Amino acid sequence: xxxxxxxxxxxxxxICLIATSMYFLLMNSTTAYAEGIGDSNLAxxxxxxxxxxxxxxxxxxxxAAGVLIIYFFIRRSAADEMDQKKWNNRIVVAxxxxxGAVIASATLNLIIGYYK
Length: 116
Prior knowledge:
It is built from three helices and no strands. It is mainly alpha-helical. It folds into two domains: about 1-30; about 35-115. Helix 2 packs antiparallel against helix 3. The chain is flat, with a radius of gyration of 28 Å. Keywords: Membrane, Signal, Transmembrane, Transmembrane helix.
């Protein structure tokens, strides 16, 4: 039993030593800063790509949701009572998904706008 306790104590000491040395290693490291990354073609192109993608998402998501909702209404009208509940749920999911996609796209577009 004493051997196990001593091994556990040695293990704890080694872990503490490793954690302390890793802490000091990370705290004393020098930081390298890149100059002019925001002016590179990659950064500008990525910014334009995200801006265009979010704009298209704000346009296409309501259109796709509208088409799906119309389809779900048509299917619901031809369904029996049990299936009508499923189609109602699908309509609600389509509406909530459309709202979520538009809000996410607008938020991303707003965040990208701060970097211009």
